[in-house]
Amino acid sequence: MTSTAVKAKTRGKRASAVKARDQHTIDQATLRKLGRIALELASPATLPAEGFCRLREVLRVIPVSEAAWWAGIRSGKYPPPVHLGAQSRAWRVTDIRELIRATSEAQQPTGTYRLPRAAPAEGAEA
Fold this sequence. Notes:
53% of the residues lie in helices and 6% in strands.
């Protein structure tokens, strides 16, 4: 191949790359979805005042993995979901608030915690 043929072939690849790059635009629905996700990530973990909440909202306030959450439901540690439809589940906000309250009460200290005393250094007089 001559050098002019190589340049022409390369120029064609560059032009098609620029054309492909210009065709990548984001539609409005995708932008709205990204905005909602960013808002969810930026907002503090809060529960609605009443009603139901989905798994994503529950896992924001209960710091466990999804697998640990489902295992806890099977063992009875966490409340079971309410079946809203064939493939739709949610949890009562009152059940989640009760779980938080019970968990925080169980972790309340029963007495004063004292740090262990440091052992005296060798050769030091007591």
